[in-house]
Give the backbone structure.
Amino acid sequence: MIGAMYTAHLALFYLPRNPNSEAANSSRAPKANIPDRHLLLLGSVASLAPIPSQVQYAISKHGVLGMFRALRATSFTNGVRVNMLCPYFIDTPLIPISGRLILAGGATGKPEDVVDAGTRFMADSRIIGRALAIGPKIKVDDDWQLVPKNSNEGKEIAAWEVNAHDFDEVDIFTARFVRLINQVEIARGWVGFVFDTAKAFTYPLRRWWRG
């Protein structure tokens, strides 16, 4: 997590200073040989759900998710777009024999699907603030019900979009809370702004007066 934070910090500093890059713009089609400013974070399925007995790993990956959600709301000021990959268990040498025994009978994702998702994020400069969970390739219908692989219905998919509409579908409390705060700010208007500004400048004096 610390390494990811340092990397993000350096990216937000250096990417806007690249004279050969263009600021991120979701309405502009990608151009050949013209890089944009993109930070791709690597999380995990552990960013989205806890894994029993893997407390430190889950904390670290939840931290990456928190950083992603914070950066996608602020990095636009530097013209940097931020996206995130959240792979499930991927069939690589990183999974030890013990892990393969635990996963026996289940399914794992394929490295090429992770590469495809990352390449899409990197290549399409219109994709901003999106996260993809990559798992085993399965065939589902429109209601997310599993259908047989040989069926003519449904579509085969390995990448699933997550955190695209947090305020609408997940963080109901957060959405309501932010909406209320915004309404209070609108109600107070410029009078409230001027009053709070005056209070901010006189705060040290008031503290001194109170002893």
Helices lie at 2-14, 55-71, 97-102, 111-123, 166-170, 172-210. The longest strand covers residues 131-140.
